[in-house]
Amino acid sequence: MVFTEFESKQFLKQYAIPVIPEVIATNLAEAVQAAQSFGYPVVLKGLGKTLLHKTERGLVHLNLSTDKEVEIAGEAIVTEAGSELEGILVQPMLAGKREFVAGLFRDRTFGPVIMFGLGGILTEALADVSFRLAPLTFTDAHEMLDEIKARKLLGPFRGEEPADREKLVAVLMGLSKIAENFPQIREIDINPLIIAKNGAPLAVDALIIQDPAIEEPMFLPPVDPNSVGSLFYPKSIAFVGASGAMGKWGYTLLTNTIGGGYSGKIYMVNPKGGTIAGHPVYPSVADIPDKVDVAVVTIPAEFVAELIPQFQAKGIKSMLLIASGFSETGEAGKLKEIELVQKARAAGVYIIGPNTMGICNPHIHFYCTGSHVRPLPGSIGVVAQSGNMGNQLLAFAEQQGIGIRGFCGSGNEAMITIEDYLDAFEADPLTETVMLYIESVKNGRRFFESAKRLGRKKPIVLLKGGQTQAGNKAAASHTGAMLSDTRVFNAACRQAGIVRVDKPMDLLDLSAAFSSMPLPAGNRVAIMTLGGGWGVVAADLCELYGMEVAPLSKAIIEKIDQILPPYWSRANPIDLVGDNDMSIPMKILEELMKWDGCDAVINLGIMGRRHMVESLSNSIRKADPSHDASMLEKIKAGMLRFEDKYVRHIVALMEKYHKPIIGVAMLKDEKDLTVYPIENAPYKGVFFPAPEQAVHSIARMYEYRKFINRKQAG
C-alpha cells in the first residue's frame, strides 16, 4: 500500500515532522483558487498512489507566478497522469536554497534504518548520506547531521540562517519513533526536506509505503555464553576420523593439538582401529572408556549426521565440525546442514562450523587448528569466518608477539554464530580486545545489539570481506535506492562503536595497540624523533587522520632546553638531533608524558638502532681485522640492554600517566616483535615498522575513546 504525498505528510505531522502547507484541488479552477489563497509563486504536483516518481514524469511544476501559468501546468499534469491522477496538489513555493533528504527503510537483516543526507534531484547521484539503525538516540541523530560531506550547508548559507539542528534532529527522532510503532511501514522518503531562510526545515515532498505482509525473518536461537566459553577449555577431546596419513585433516589437527602441548586427554576414533602416534584407536565413540568434552570431526559430510545419536548416548555436548560439503556448496548442501542442525539441537549437541579450520586457546596450550601456529597467550579474542584468514592472522600474531586470548574459525555458523562469540567475549574476564574477520551476519539486529553492548566495555576491531553493493534495486524511494549491504553494515558498526579496518595487517596493528596501551584522552600528539624527516612525515599523517600535533608550551620548551643542545628546533615534532646519549630520549619522553598539553606520544627511531650498530660492527671487522672485537660485542650488548630498559621505561610511564606511547623502530628484522610484554605490567611496548601504522593506530584509538565518551555522556 502506498500513501499519497498528501496522506504521507498528514501522517508525518503527527510525529512532529514539519510539513509545507498544501491544498488538494480536484480541478483547474480549484487549483487557481488555492494558488491565489497562498499567494504567488506556487508549486503544482500530480497526486496519486501510483505516481511515485513525479519529477521524472513531468508532474512537478515549480515557481508558477500567474493564474495562467497555473492553468497551463494543471493541464499538463492532467494529460500526463491520466487515470492515475487523484487530484492536483497546490503548495506555496518555498524560498530556500538548501535541500536535504530524510527517510526510513526496513533492511531484512538489520531491521529499520534511518537516513539523512543531501537531497533534491541529485540525491542518488551524489549519495551524500548517513545511516543509523532505529531506534535512534539524540546522539545518533546529531552524529548523522555531522557525518555528511555537505554539513557546511547546515550553517549560515548565502544570507540564510543556519539550519535549526534541533528541528532536524526531531525529524530523525520522529522517523525512529514511527519505525518502532509501525512495523508494517516499509519505506518513508522525505525529499526534499528544504531549509527555509529562517533555518526551519519543512518536508516539501514525502512518500510512505506500507507492507502489511512483511514477515519477520527466522534466526538461530542464541547459545549460552558459558557453553561457548567451555569450548575453549576441553578436558578431553575425541578425534573422529583420526588418521595416520600425513596431509589428512584427521592427522594434521591431531598432531597440531599434541604438538602444541595440550595436556588434556586425547582419544582417536576410526573404524579401522589400531594405533596412531602411539595412541590406541577406538572403532567408535561408544568404545571410548571415559567422558569426552569435544569431538573434532573430520569424516565426510554425508556420514556426520550418523554421529549425533552416538554423541547423545556418550554425552558429548560439543562438535568441532571440520568437514565441508554443507551450505557452502549450494542448495543440496544447505538442506543437509539444516537436517544436521535439527538432529544436533534435539540431541543437545552444539556444532562449531561446519567448514571450520579449528579453535585454539593459548592459555591452556590448546592449538587445534589447520596450520601449525602457536601465538602467545594474551587478551585478544579472535573469530574469523574464513579459516584460512584466521590461521594467517594467528601466524602474524605469533610472529609479532601479539598475545591471543582465544581463536575460533566459525565456518558456516550453522549453530554457533558470530553473535554468540561476541556475547561470550563480553562475559570472559580475560578478553580485553576483540578481533573479527567476517563476511556476513545472519542476524544483523542481534549482531548490532551484542556489538554495541560489548563495544562499551571492550574495543572491537573488524575487517569485513565480501563488500557488496547489492542494495534494493527495486526500491521505490531514494532511501531504499541508496541502501546497500555495505551501507547498512557500516552504519551498524559506527553506531556500535566497532573500529573498522580495510586490510588484514590493520586488523593486527589495531588489535596490538588496543590490547597494549591506554586510550588517549584527546587528539593532541607529541612526536619525538631521531630524524627530522620522520617527524615531518608523522606530523603530516597526524593532520590526515584528524590528530593535532600540539604546539609546545613555554614551560615544556624550558624543560627540554635543559636536556637537548641549544640548537634543537623548539617545536613539535621534537628532533633529538642525532644525539648518542641514550638517556636523552628517556628523559624527554617523561617530560612529554608529564605535560598536560598532549594526550599521546609517538617516538620514532629510538628502537632498532642496534641493527645499525651490528652492520657497522660487521663492516669494521672486514675493514680492520685488528680492531678489538670484544669492544664491538660490548657495544651490541649495551644496545640490547638499552632497548630492554627503554621498553620498561615506556611501560612504567604509561602506567603512571595513563597516556599511550607508540613507537616506530628505526630498523626491524624477522626476530623483532611488534609487541614487547613486560612481566606483571598492565601495558606493553608497541613498535611498528612505519609511521603510518603508529599514527593510524593512535587515531583509531582516539576515535574509539570518543565513542566511549559519547555513550557515557548519553
Task: Walk me through the structure.
Helix 7 (225-231) packs across helix 12, helix 13 runs parallel beside helix 15 and helix 20 (609-623) runs antiparallel to helix 21. The two termini are 38 Å apart. The protein is 38% helix and 21% strand. It has 714 residues and is an alpha/beta fold. It is built from 22 helices and 31 strands. The longest helix is centred in the last third of the chain and has 29 residues, at 629-657. Among the domains are: 21-93, ATP-grasp fold, A domain (Dna Ligase, domain 1, 2-Layer Sandwich); 517-712, Rossmann fold. The chain is flat and about 105 Å long. Residues 468-482 have low confidence and may be disordered. The chain has a 7-stranded mixed sheet, sandwiched between helices. Strands 19-18-21-20-22-23-24 form a 7-stranded mixed sheet, sandwiched between helices.
